């Protein structure tokens, strides 16, 4: 719909398109032989900016100049469509019309209120940058541009959601990111047709390859230094307005067992920590199942002293081992969920007191054995050592089918479970790139299973499909 030259007709049209919203305001003033009218949402604009940089220059003009030469607002555009004006209003812009002109000026006067850059909440920093992403996409891009001072850093904006019009930013390094992966992402995000986007969870689920896989196929982080390291490896980052998280793609299975802190310590310590996380991953998945299999089917495989200890702890327990394990793991998940949802001081108290009380009561009432409490506690600690929340949650859920398979088929059930999981991982793709076995390549294994010395990390990871695989060209202080 085109703009009418009459100020009153334009105001009425905009008011109808905004359904007579109470925060829609207009202001008319005269300057020279011109009559101006401002349209705005008073809940979205910075009134001082409008007064100082729009109204005052217009009132002080003495010559018949172009509007762009009069107002001192950096963001100024023109349109002849009322739909563009309405979209600008809900974004916090001020719309200006000159009486008799079939043109609207869109002035950037939106109010900017945001929380300050703070410490990461969900990813604890041991050594390194203490800055965390916030809900404003422009501030997040500012943080990353200060860390990556190069013109190669490309930012592309998209609007996702028919009603929400959520701003999504794609970041990558032009000289490193693979063009085919970028095109594939653009194809997938262009196919998203949804009312609104609850970022980043909606975007993650709508663009990933396998919808029914427990394993996370995209990484979510709130640490800008972690985003920088992945961008430097040829990967891409996705920022969404209103979310303090960044989606990294493509990623492999091994990326979820890595931490930026691995590179802030010596390579021997970094390798030890990373290998410990891999062991924790295996333990968190299979330890309860292994206990159930050994106690139910193959107790003779245990040393005699341990078998006697288990027998004494299970002597008066009424429930079978499989129900013990499931009951304790479900109880643990309920406690964890309760501590997350409650306020921080109360949640910590409930977690500690609830764990002690429940653990003591269930043992004294002979519902579960003391050994099962130890097994479940060790399983929980092992799952919490995984740096990624998504992977840690997937590991805790995977322990349940492992328990059921072990209770049905014994140790053979555990072997079958591992075979199914490894087969699934080997077939899994992320943005069309192998998810699991790329980390076992001989050229990149030193940065997946282990954290090798910096001088040995000569190539970027295979799943990045980077244009430039060479990462370091220095050996013993001399250029190659």
Automatic annotation (TrEMBL):
Keywords: Membrane, Transmembrane, Transmembrane helix. InterPro entries: Spore_Ger (IPR004995), UPF0353/GerABKA_families (IPR050768). The chain crosses the membrane at residues 275-297, 317-335, 342-361, 367-386, 398-421. Pfam families: GerA. GO terms for biological process: spore germination. It comes from the Bacteria. One of its GO terms (cellular component) is membrane. PANTHER family: LEUCINE ZIPPER PROTEIN 4, SPORE GERMINATION PROTEIN. Belongs to the GerABKA family. This is Spore gernimation protein GerA. It comes from Paenibacillus pectinilyticus. The lineage of its organism: Bacteria, Bacillati, Bacillota, Bacilli, Bacillales.
């Amino acid at each position: 719909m085109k703009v009418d030259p009459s100020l009153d007709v334009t105001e009425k049209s905009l008011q109808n398109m905004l359904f007579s919203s109470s925060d829609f305001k207009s202001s008319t003033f005269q300057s020279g032989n011109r009559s101006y009218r401002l349209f705005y949402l008073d809940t979205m604009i910075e009134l001082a900016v409008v007064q100082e940089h729009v109204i005052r220059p217009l009132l002080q003009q003495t010559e018949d100049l172009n509007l762009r030469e009069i107002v001192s607002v950096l963001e100024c555009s023109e349109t002849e469509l009322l739909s563009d004006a309405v979209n600008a209003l809900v974004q916090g812009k001020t719309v200006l019309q000159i009486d008799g002109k079939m043109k609207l000026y869109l002035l950037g006067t939106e109010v900017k209120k945001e929380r300050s850059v703070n410490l990461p909440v969900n990813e604890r920093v041991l050594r390194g940058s203490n800055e965390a992403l916030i809900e404003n996409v422009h501030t997040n891009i500012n943080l990353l541009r200060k860390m990556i001072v190069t013109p190669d850093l490309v930012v592309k904006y998209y609007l996702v959601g028919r009603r929400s019009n959520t701003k999504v930013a794609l970041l990558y390094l032009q000289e490193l990111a693979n063009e085919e992966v970028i095109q594939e992402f653009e194809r997938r995000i262009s196919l998203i047709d949804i009312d609104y986007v609850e970022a980043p969870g909606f975007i993650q689920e709508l663009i990933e390859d396998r919808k029914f896989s427990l394993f996370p196929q995209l990484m979510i982080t709130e640490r800008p230094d972690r985003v920088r390291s992945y961008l430097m490896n040829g990967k891409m980052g996705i920022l969404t307005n209103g979310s303090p998280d960044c989606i990294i793609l493509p990623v492999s299975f091994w990326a979820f067992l890595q931490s930026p802190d691995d590179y802030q310590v010596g390579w021997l310590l970094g390798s030890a920590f990373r290998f410990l996380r891999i062991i924790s991953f295996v333990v968190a998945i299979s330890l309860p199942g292994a206990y159930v299999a050994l106690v139910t089917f193959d107790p003779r495989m245990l040393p005699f002293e341990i078998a006697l200890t288990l027998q004494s702890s299970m002597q008066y327990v009424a429930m079978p081992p499989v129900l013990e394990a499931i009951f304790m793991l479900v109880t643990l998940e309920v406690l964890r969920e309760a501590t997350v949802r409650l306020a921080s001081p109360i949640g910590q108290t409930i977690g500690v007191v609830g764990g002690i009380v429940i653990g003591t009561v269930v043992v004294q009432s002979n519902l579960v054995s003391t050994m099962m409490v130890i097994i479940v506690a060790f399983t929980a600690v092992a799952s919490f050592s995984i740096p990624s929340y998504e992977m840690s949650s997937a590991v805790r859920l995977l322990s349940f089918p492992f328990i059921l398979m072990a209770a049905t088929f014994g140790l053979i059930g555990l072997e079958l479970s591992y075979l199914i999981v490894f087969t699934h991982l080997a077939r899994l793709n992320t943005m069309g790139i192998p998810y699991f076995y790329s980390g076992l390549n001989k050229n990149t294994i030193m940065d997946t299973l282990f954290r090798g010395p910096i001088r040995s990390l000569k190539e970027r990871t295979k799943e990045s499909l980077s244009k430039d695989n060479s990462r370091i060209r220095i050996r013993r202080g001399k250029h190659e």
